[in-house]
C-alpha cells in the first residue's frame, strides 16, 4: 500500500469558477456605449510600419510588438517571441516555449541566470527552473495579457530591479485595464490534444474613474512523446483608480502549473534509442526491471530513462502601485509587491528503493519562496535635463529540500506529496537586497545630442542555513557602492542615430540548489575567501536608421566578464551530488548584431536579424577533476552559439494575414573543453489567419492557424538541462532535450 498522500488546495477549481462567473457577467452586464462600426475587411487600411528599434536609447534596445505576441500560438511564452531579435538564443523542448525544465534563453553568450527580468517593473529573478528569487513569466501572467516586451541586449537600464542582469535585461509590460468595456474570448485546439481557453472581462472606464479587468486561462496538452500532460490554470486581475492627476492600482495573479518531464538525452542514448525516446510511463514493469538491472530494447544503463518525472508550481503574485504626478514634468511611481511560491519536482528514482520488493521510489524536491519588496522611481524634467532616481528593496526567504516517498506501484504524483520515509537535504536562505540608482540625461544641440550618466549601488546579503544533509551554510554578500553607466545618442539626420554606451554590472550570489551553497561545507569554507561576485563591463557602439519603409540597426559590442563561476556537475541529475564550484576568471565577448525591417510593399514586410558572437574563456586558472587538469583558456562558452540568423516574411491585406519565419542556430557546446559539439540547425514556423470583423454577437472575430517546426526537423533544442560537464568525448552525459516535431494549432477569438 502506498504512503503517498495528497495535500489539498482549495483554489484548484478556481479557473472553472471564474470562467462561469465571467460568462454570467458578460450576459448580464449593461451594454457599453456603441463603438464605431468595425471597418469591412475588404476596405480596411493596413497599419503603418511598427517600431521594433527603440529610438533615443544609448544601448541596443528593441521591442517585440503586440502584433508579434498576437500572431504567436496562444499560450506561447513571450520569451519565445524574442528569438527573432539579434543576440537572442531561445531553446525549448515544447512548441509553446513554456515547459520550464527546457526553457533556456541566452543573450550575447550570457546565460539565463546572468540576465534580468521584470514584469511591470516587478523583479522576476533569473527565471531559472529552481528559481530562488522570482518566478517564470509564463506563470506570472497569461501571455494574452502581455502588451509588449523590450529587450536590452547589452545591459539593462539602471532602474532595472535585478541583481543578475550582467548581460542584458528583458522587460515585460502587461495590457492594463482598457477604457472600453468588453469581453475577450479565445479558444485554441491543436496537436497532442491541446486545448486552451482564455476569457477576459474589462469593466471599461467607469464614471468613478475606475477601470479593471479579470481574466482566466485553462490549458491542457499532452506531451509530444511519452506519457503525461502539460497543464496550467491562471487567474489575473488588475484595478486602477484615477485620483485627479494620480493613479492608484492593485493587481493579483495566481497560477497552478503541472508539467510532466521529458527524459534528458545524450548523444549516446539518441544513437541507441532515437530522438523520440522518453521515460518508461505507463510501462511500470519495464521501469522496475531496469531498476533491477534488466535492460531491454537498446537500454543499457539506469539513467537512460526513469518511470516518470513531473514539476508542480503554485504562485501568488500581488501588490499595489501608486503613480503620482505632482507637477508638469514630475512623475513618481511606487510599487509594493508580494510573491509566494510553492513548488515540487518529482522523479521516480531507481537509486533509492521503496522496499525490498519495489526497487523504485519517488524523489521529491520541494521549493518555497516568500518575497516582499518595493520598487520606487522618480523622473523629473528640468530644462534640458531629465533626472531619474529610484530604489529597490526586497526580503526573500527561499527553502528547498529533498525527500523520498515510498510507492507500491505507479502512482498519481500530480499533487504535492507528504509523509516521506527519508529527507536527506533541507536548506533555507534569507536574502536581503537593496539597490539605489540616479541618472541624468542631458539634451543638447536642439535635442540632437543626448548624454546619459549615472550609477547604481547594489548590496545583496544571503544568510544560509543547513537543516539536514551535508550541504553548506553560512553568509555571503555581494556589494558594490558604485556601478557606473554612461552613454550618448547623436542624431546625424532626423532618420539616422548613432549610439554608444558603457556600463558595469554585478551579479549577486545564488541562494539555493544551484549556487555556492550547493557545495559541501568543507568545499564552501575552502572556496569562500576567494569567492567574488561575478561582474561585467559592457560597451555598445551602433547606428539606427529609418528611411520610409525601411528601418534597421547595426551594433558592435564588447563585454568583459570577471569571476565567472563554473558549477560543474559531478554525477547524474537524479542522484543530485554536491556540485564543484570553480572560479575560472574571465570571459571575453566580442560581437556584431544587425537587423533590418523592410516594408516591401503595402501588404508585405520582411524582417531579418544576424548575430556573430565570440564568447571565450580567458585568463582562466587550471582546475582539477581528480588527477585530470582542466584548462578552459580559449574555449568557447557553453551554450553560446557563434552565429544566429532569423528571417521572417509577413503579409497582411483585407483582413488576411500570414507569416513564415526561419531561424538558424549555430553550433553549441555543453562541455567546457568543447569536446562534444551540438550540431547547428534551421527551424521554420508559419502562421496564417483572417480577421472577420463583426460576426454574429462579436464586435471582432478572428481565426488563426499556427504551425511550429514546419518541416518536422529533428534537432537538439535545449542543452545543459542537467548542467554542464568539463568533458564528455563519448557523448554519454544526458543533458540535452530534443526539439518538438511539427505541431499545428487552430485558434478562434472574438470580442463581445
From TrEMBL:
Belongs to the TonB-dependent receptor family. It comes from Pseudoduganella umbonata. It holds the Pfam family Plug. It is found in: Cell outer membrane. The keyword Iron applies. This is Iron complex outermembrane receptor protein. Keywords: Cell outer membrane, Ion transport, Iron, Iron transport, Membrane, Receptor, Signal, TonB box, Transmembrane, Transmembrane beta strand, Transport. Residues 1-28 form the signal peptide. It comes from the Bacteria. Its main location: membrane.
Amino acid at each position: 500500500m502506498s504512503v503517498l498522500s495528497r495535500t489539498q488546495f482549495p483554489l484548484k477549481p478556481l479557473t472553472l469558477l471564474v470562467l462561469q462567473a465571467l460568462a454570467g457577467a458578460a450576459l448580464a452586464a449593461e451594454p457599453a456605449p456603441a463603438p464605431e462600426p468595425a471597418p469591412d475587411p475588404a476596405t480596411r487600411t493596413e497599419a503603418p510600419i511598427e517600431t521594433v528599434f527603440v529610438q533615443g536609447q544609448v544601448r541596443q534596445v528593441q521591442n517585440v510588438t503586440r502584433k508579434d505576441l498576437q500572431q504567436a500560438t496562444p499560450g506561447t511564452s513571450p520569451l519565445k517571441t524574442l528569438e527573432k531579435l539579434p543576440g537572442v538564443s531561445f531553446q525549448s523542448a515544447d512548441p509553446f516555449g513554456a515547459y520550464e525544465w527546457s526553457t533556456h534563453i541566452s543573450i550575447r553568450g550570457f546565460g539565463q541566470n546572468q540576465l534580468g527580468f521584470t514584469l511591470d517593473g516587478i523583479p522576476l529573478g533569473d527565471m531559472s527552473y529552481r528559481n530562488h528569487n522570482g518566478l517564470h513569466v509564463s506563470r506570472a501572467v497569461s501571455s494574452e495579457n502581455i502588451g509588449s516586451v523590450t529587450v536590452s541586449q547589452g545591459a539593462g537600464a539602471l532602474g532595472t530591479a535585478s541583481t543578475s542582469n550582467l548581460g542584458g535585461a528583458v522587460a515585460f509590460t502587461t495590457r492594463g485595464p482598457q477604457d472600453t468595456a468588453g469581453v475577450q474570448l479565445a479558444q485554441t485546439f491543436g496537436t497532442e490534444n491541446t486545448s486552451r481557453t482564455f476569457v477576459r472581462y474589462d469593466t471599461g472606464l467607469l464614471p468613478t474613474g475606475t477601470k479593471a479587468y479579470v481574466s482566466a486561462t485553462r490549458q491542457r496538452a499532452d506531451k509530444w512523446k511519452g506519457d503525461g500532460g502539460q497543464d496550467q490554470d491562471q487567474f489575473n486581475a488588475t484595478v486602477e483608480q484615477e485620483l485627479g492627476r494620480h493613479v492608484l492600482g492593485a493587481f493579483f495573479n495566481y497560477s497552478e502549473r503541472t508539467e510532466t518531464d521529458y527524459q534528458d538525452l545524450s548523444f549516446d542514448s539518441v544513437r541507441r534509442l532515437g530522438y523520440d525516446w522518453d521515460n518508461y510511463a505507463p510501462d511500470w514493469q519495464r521501469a522496475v526491471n531496469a531498476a533491477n538491472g534488466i535492460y531491454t530494447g537498446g537500454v543499457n544503463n539506469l539513467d537512460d530513462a526513469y518511470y516518470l518525472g513531473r514539476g508542480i508550481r503554485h504562485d501568488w503574485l500581488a501588490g499595489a502601485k501608486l503613480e503620482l504626478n505632482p507637477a508638469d514634468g514630475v512623475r513618481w511611481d511606487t510599487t509594493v509587491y508580494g510573491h509566494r511560491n510553492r513548488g515540487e519536482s518529482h522523479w521516480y528514482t531507481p537509486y533509492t528503493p521503496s522496499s525490498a520488493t519495489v526497487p523504485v521510489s519517488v524523489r521529491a524536491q520541494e521549493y518555497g519562496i516568500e518575497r516582499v519588496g518595493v520598487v520606487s522611481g522618480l523622473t523629473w524634467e528640468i530644462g534640458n535635463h531629465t533626472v531619474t532616481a529610484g530604489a529597490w528593496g526586497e526580503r526573500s526567504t527561499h527553502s528547498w529540500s529533498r525527500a523520498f516517498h515510498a510507492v507500491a506501484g505507479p502512482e498519481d504524483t500530480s499533487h504535492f506529496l507528504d509523509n516521506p520515509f527519508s529527507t536527506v537535504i533541507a536548506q533555507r536562505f534569507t536574502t536581503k537586497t537593496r539597490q539605489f540608482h540616479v541618472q541624468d540625461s542631458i539634451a543638447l544641440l536642439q535635442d540632437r545630442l543626448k548624454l546619459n550618466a549615472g550609477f547604481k549601488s547594489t548590496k545583496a546579503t544571503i544568510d544560509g542555513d543547513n537543516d539536514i544533509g551535508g550541504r553548506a551554510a553560512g553568509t555571503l554578500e555581494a556589494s558594490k557602492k558604485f556601478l557606473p553607466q554612461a552613454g550618448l545618442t547623436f542624431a546625424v539626420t532626423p532618420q539616422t542615430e548613432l549610439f554608444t554606451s558603457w556600463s558595469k554590472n554585478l551579479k549577486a550570489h545564488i541562494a539555493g540548489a544551484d549556487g555556492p551553497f550547493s557545495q559541501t561545507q568543507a568545499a564552501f569554507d575552502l572556496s569562500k575567501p576567494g569567492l567574488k561576485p561575478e561582474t561585467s563591463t559592457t560597451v555598445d557602439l551602433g547606428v539606427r536608421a529609418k528611411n520610409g519603409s525601411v528601418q534597421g540597426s547595426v551594433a558592435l559590442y564588447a563585454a568583459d566578464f570577471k569571476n565567472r563561476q563554473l558549477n560543474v556537475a559531478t554525477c547524474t541529475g537524479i542522484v543530485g551530488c554536491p556540485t564543484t564550484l570553480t572560479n575560472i576568471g574571465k570571459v571575453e565577448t566580442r560581437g556584431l548584431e544587425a537587423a533590418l525591417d523592410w516594408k516591401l510593399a503595402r501588404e508585405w514586410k520582411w524582417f531579418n536579424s544576424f548575430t556573430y558572437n565570440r564568447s571565450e574563456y580567458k585568463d582562466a586558472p587550471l582546475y582539477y577533476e581528480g588527477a585530470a587538469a582542466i584548462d578552459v583558456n580559449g574555449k568557447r562558452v557553453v551554450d553560446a552559439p557563434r552565429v544566429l540568423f532569423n528571417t521572417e516574411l509577413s503579409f497582411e491585406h483585407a483582413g488576411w494575414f500570414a507569416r513564415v519565419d526561419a531561424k538558424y542556430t549555430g553550433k553549441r557546446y555543453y562541455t567546457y573543453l568543447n569536446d562534444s559539439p551540438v550540431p547547428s540547425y534551421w527551424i521554420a514556423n508559419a502562421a496564417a489567419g483572417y480577421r472577420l470583423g463583426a460576426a454574429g454577437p462579436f464586435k471582432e472575430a478572428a481565426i488563426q492557424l499556427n504551425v511550429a517546426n514546419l518541416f518536422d526537423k529533428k534537432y537538439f533544442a535545449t542543452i545543459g538541462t542537467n548542467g554542464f560537464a568539463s568533458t564528455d568525448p563519448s557523448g554519454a552525459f544526458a543533458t540535452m532535450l530534443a526539439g518538438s516535431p511539427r505541431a499545428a494549432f487552430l485558434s478562434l477569438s472574438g470580442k463581445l
